[in-house]
Amino acid sequence: MDFLRVVLLLLGFLPLAAAMYFDLGEQEQKCIIEEIPEDTLVTGNFFLEPWDVTSFSHSPHLGVTVTVRDPNQEVQLSKRYGKFGKFTFTAHASGQHHLCFQTNTTRFSVFAGERLKLHLDVQMGEHSVDPNMDRTKDNLQILESNLQHLTSQMTYITRQQEYNREKEEIFRQISEETNSKVLWWAVIQTCILLSVGFWQIKRLKDFFIAKKLKKKEKKKKKKKKKKKKQTNFLLNET
Fold first, then answer.
1. C-alpha 53, offset from chain centre
2. Could you give all domains of the chain from N- to C-terminal order, each with its CATH number?
3. In terms of Cα–Cα distance, which of 109, 131, 105 is closest to 45?
4. How does pLDDT run across 147-196, given as a tens digit for each residue?
5. How far apart (Å, rounded) are the C-alpha atoms in residues 156 and 42?
6. Taking Cα atoms as reference points, which of 180, 73, 161 lies closest to residue 169?
7. Taken in order 9, 147, 141, 15, is the CA torsion positive or negative?
8. pLDDT for 40-67, tens place per residue?
9. Which among 175, 167, 170 is positioned nearest to 36, based on CA atoms?
10. How far apart are CA 122 and CA 206, in angstroms?
11. How many whole angstroms separate alpha carbon 226 and alpha carbon 230?
């Protein structure tokens, strides 16, 4: 029982999350792309601070506008926050979701050339483990919370696998269509080359036949002229 509890606790504190940070300038917008399955709850936590913490003091006017677009480029979430905040949304369709962040104030424009650092933590799943959970609670309650978290993560993994299978099926269909088009294009090219070859052969054949006929006609004309000269010569002698 103790071993199982330890394993569940360790697994519970390994959420499916993506933590990162990047720089932002005044009124600058940056986006990240997340592959999210359908009906998946996404939770994001962020914190905005100066890139160089010694350059100027924290301004209470700093803020961030969070915009989420679904795979159809429709706005699913657009909200203003302060220096730190938390946003949640549920993916209504599987695919690439764009999470965009833009500073929504110009109060720090006097600090020309300075950059801001945005810390971002994105988690997938409906239930997360609270690291500040009261350790005095009954072990069964802690175990129950971790089991709920694991169930949520298993649900997310299942949806992710289904989404990957859908993508694989789409890719397979595209590959088959592409291979079919390549095959037909090769057949068409072969037919065109054969047609051009036959046409060239026919043209050459017609050319040589015409040239041969012209030579025959010239020979006939020469014979006629020669015969005519001989006839005229005989008539003159007589």
1. 36
2. 2-171 (2.60.120.680)
3. 131
4. 877 887 788 788 788 888 888 888 899 999 999 899 899 999 999 999 99
5. 10
6. 161
7. positive
8. 889 999 998 887 766 554 555 678 899 9
9. 167
10. 76
11. 6
